Amino acid sequence: MNNAVLTTSLIFLKRHRISIGAFLIILLVWLFCLPKPLFKDPTATVVTSKEGLLLGARIANDGQWRFPANDSVPHRFEVAILEFEDAYFYKHPGFNPIAMSKALWANLTTKKQRGGSTLTQQVIRLSRKNPGRTYFEKLIELAMATRLEAGYRKSEILKLYASNAPFGGNVVGLESASWRYFGIPASELSWGQAAALAVLPNNPALVFPGKNERVFEAKRNRLLKKLYIKKHIDATTYELALSEQLPGKPQELPDIAPHFTERVARQKSGEFIESTLRFNLQSRLNQIAAEAHYKLDQNNIHNLAILVLDVNTREVLGYIGNAPTTAEHANYVDVITSDRSTGSTLKPFLFASLLSAGELLPNTLVADVPTSINGYNPQNFDRNFQGAVPASEALARSLNVPAVNLLRDYGLKRFYNVLQKLNFKTVTKPADYYGLSLILGGAESNLLQLTNAYAGMAATLNYFNTHSSEYRDGLFDEPVYICTDKKPAIETKKQPEIVDAGAIYQTLETLREVNRPTGSENWEFFNEAQPIAWKTGTSYGFKDAWAVGVTGSFAIGVWAGNADGEGRPGITGIQAAAPILFDVLSILPASPWFQKPFDELVEAELCTQSGNLAGLYCPETKLQWIPKKGTRTEACTFHTQIFLNKEGDHRVNADCYPLGAMISQSWFSLPPVWEYYYAPLHPEYKPLPDFELGCFRESEKIMEFIYPKRGETILIPKDFNDQQQEVIFKLAHRNPDTIVYWYLDNTFINSTETFHELSLALSPGSYILSATDSAGNTIKQRIQIKFASS
Fold it and tell me: Rounded to the nearest 10 degrees, what angle do helices 75-85 and 191-199 cross at?
């Protein structure tokens, strides 16, 4: 029996092998007739806010406004398009035999051409770029349509149609049409708008203003009546829909964050991107930028940039790449990513690094005196010197000379490595290339990197306080600006990535007191309900104005200036950038101040006057929280014990005065050069009293050269008559009223009193400069004089 069946089957296969082979070939062709993907056309880049609102879009590479495929088709459009084009869409297998038969009969018996195509067939036709209408082409569409139905869900086919149907001109796809004709997303289309768009793909030319408007309106109204008759809409909705305007001239798409959209388009061309930007915040930032630009433009300051980050999520919340200026002033430049001189904005990172290393306390006195380092002579912004100033005040007031001295103490290469860890990718040249000017704007960075570094410090502190006093990596990585479900791997550790939480807290506390306005700066910006740690910066030549700040939740970065590098007197951080920063702060939700990281702090007794750990002779001390490693710093050396005569006006010692009559006293004393600049600014400061006559003078520095500094080569220019200029010599003496005698190569030159300064006309060469006071104290040093090269 089995053999008979097998024999019969073999005979059948032999007789019909051609037919079977043909069938298998047809089946294979049918199975693989659909290209993947079905549509290969380039799409526009579409960028939305975190809430899903359109921020901007960039046209596809082929010049078509073709948005990426829709996730879904809005209900109103679905109902409208099915009633107009394919009422049996959910019932047929890809083609409608009755509609095709009617179309064929009409084509054979009348001059009127009918298609009878289903939406599925129209999808195939669109994917094949609308080839000529022939019966053979219809057979191809029929085969491919049935294959599409076999491999795709109905909802997917409907989405393919909605995403690729023509809507007139260079508008392709429902979402694009909805924005171009009505300025709204497709999900918000009214019944009248949905009906108008449903009839357009059938005849896209109807949309052009002034052409076929009556035909267009009649088609839409017939569809609306059909929707009403079939009870998709009620009578009121029907009447309202009839009165709605038809689509006309395409509208401009929203462009709320143009530079951000351009940035995304360069990196994610042709994609639908949900960004991290907040729509309302971005809109408010646009208003702030417009108002600020109007004011700055009065002083020929044409460009600005604003960046807002979420400290804890590291998301970009607001992005103003440039002011609403003109092409003449480079409005197309994204200033947020443009490299500019950093000014003083890196100083907080040096301060935090010194605190974290246990090499500085927040209020330790640091030198602010004329300084020359290998020919480099830093100057403060106001060209004045304080003599001695607490480190925190030097940071808050952005004094340059103390910053350079602190960088020299900390180490240039060491700080350069810190900047690398902070992700300053634009600091690419070797440390020696920048030199000590690195801390004053000698390097370049951009607003994105700078704001991110400040945000990273705040995030480090927040994480430490909320995660059992632990640290984590990655807090200085680049900010996130595209939403993703992917969560980064978090690795916690006991040691900080760069600087510890205690040092960061002390730094932010210091920056909370920065540059409060005085005098002419009468604009109000400081709000105790919204505390902020902030820093300004101004580059050399008044070319860049910076203001960067952090709260417990947000980091704000502002740059103002001219994109072409033109300097202006008003381009300073406090004048041009800070007002914008506080305008931005005023629209952000209030956030609490940072918690104190007690596990990285220790309470220590400090000298009130010097800011150092309390020494044996400090008369006033206070308990203060300092970073743990701060206990390594030396105790106060500015306070010493001295002995005075009974009148208290001269120092004495056992060699010249009865022990029982001496008065012991603690005395605050600075080095002579520090004292020279410090004393006039602090009337309460009293220099050390001189020794009483006949008393042995203990070894101490009584006077010191201010200029020239030891080891410094003096360069002297020539005037227009080719005559050399005079060289000025200057020294500081604890007792200014004493007489000082000046010598050059042991030859007496002159004497000075009160103001110990003189000038000499000297030829290039090497000399020994010395000075002796009336008490016989002498200082000397070798000096080198050269002509400045022309």
Answer: 40
d(CA 742, CA 286): 65
Residue 707 domain boundaries: 703-787
Q: What is the dihedral of CA 257, 260, 262, 265, to 10 degrees?
A: -120
Segment 126-131 long-range contacts (CB within 8 Å, at least 24 positions apart): 126/39, 126/161, 126/164, 126/165, 126/166, 127/35, 127/38, 127/39, 127/164
| Alpha-carbon gap, residue 447 to 654, rounded angstroms | 64
Cα Rg of the chain, angstroms: 40
Same domain, 89 and 67: yes
Q: Edge-to-edge, what's the strand order for the sheet holding 272-274?
A: 54-58, 45-48, 272-274
DSSP 436: G
Q: Scanning the structure block, which residue is given the tokens 């010395």?
A: 770
Please indicate, yes or no, whether residues 138 and 20 belong to a single structural domain of this protein: no
pLDDT tens, position by position, 2-13: 666 666 666 655
pLDDT tens figures, 718-759: 654 555 667 888 888 887 778 888 888 888 888 888 788 888
The candidate with the shortest Cα–Cα distance to 181, out of 158, 190, 42, is 190
Domain assignment present for residue 714? The answer is: yes
For residue 708, the domain's CATH number is 2.60.40.10
Note whether 135 and 21 are same-domain residues.
no
| 140 and 192 within one domain | yes
Between helix 235-242 and helix 213-229 the angle, nearest 10°, is 180
> What does the alpha-carbon distance between residue 239 and residue 103 come to, in Å, rounded to a whole number?
33
C-alpha 251/C-alpha 196 separation (Å) is 16
CA gap 561, 543 in Å, rounded: 6
Same domain, 155 and 188: yes
pTM of the model: 0.86
